[in-house]
Amino acid sequence: MTDAAPSAGAERHASATTAVERVTAEVRDEILSGALGPDAPLREEAWAARLGVSRHTVRAAFQRLVAERLATAEPYRGVRVTSFDRRQILALQQLRSALEVEAVRIALERSGGVLPRDAVASARAAIDAMAAIDAGDGDGGEGADGAWLEVERRHAEFHAALVAASGSPRIIEAHTAIGSELLLFLLHARTHYSIASLVDEHLRLLDELSSRGPDALREHLEHSTRLLLG
């Protein structure tokens, strides 16, 4: 007995889902690269014409970006790129610290005071990837914006590796949920860092985690908060 062929309705649904994902990825990349600045309007008609899709597809993509907190939707203002004020920066960093610092505490407690080898390897691989981009050897895309976007993603992988070391499904899930927002946060921090300084800071942090534990990560996050709030 052979499997039934997909119905026409199922094929249309899959095609629509793929189109929404493609539009979401296109707009997300422009936001996270800085091509679309804070509070920039996102127009359904313009994006539909640009990408050759329906406004319904674009609307669904915008809804996903709002769910990721990369965009906001307000009555009479439409959909706009998220902009951070001092209150939002502080709130996001408090949440991030609560998740990441506790994750590291759990990981160290479970592993006898040292980070698991696989977590260290993943974190160091992310740092090495950032260093390769800085040296011009990595896949940084086109131009400085493309390089920084790739650095931001590797930076996210570094912190995700620390969180994953906890083995806590709920902490990992909560941290993953704010992943896009954290990428946007780092975009705003670009003016305070070079790629080289970001690499050096995270190398130091990785070394200090075994000797100083969660306090090292807490101070690392507080430092970036002060830079932005200052």
Automatic annotation (TrEMBL):
Pfam families assigned to the protein according to its UniProt record, in alphabetical order: FCD, GntR
Keyword match Transcription regulation: yes
PROSITE patterns given in the database record: HTH_GNTR
InterPro entries the record matches: GntR_C, TF_FadR/GntR_C, Tscrpt_reg_HTH_GntR, WH-like_DNA-bd_sf, WH_DNA-bd_sf
This protein's name: DNA-binding GntR family transcriptional regulator
Gene3D superfamilies the record matches: GntR ligand-binding domain-like, Winged helix-like DNA-binding domain superfamily/Winged helix DNA-binding domain
Keywords, sorted A to Z: DNA-binding, Transcription, Transcription regulation
UniProt keyword annotation of Transcription present: yes
MF term (GO), any: DNA binding
Organism listed in the record: Agromyces flavus
Domain HTH gntR-type stretches: 17-84
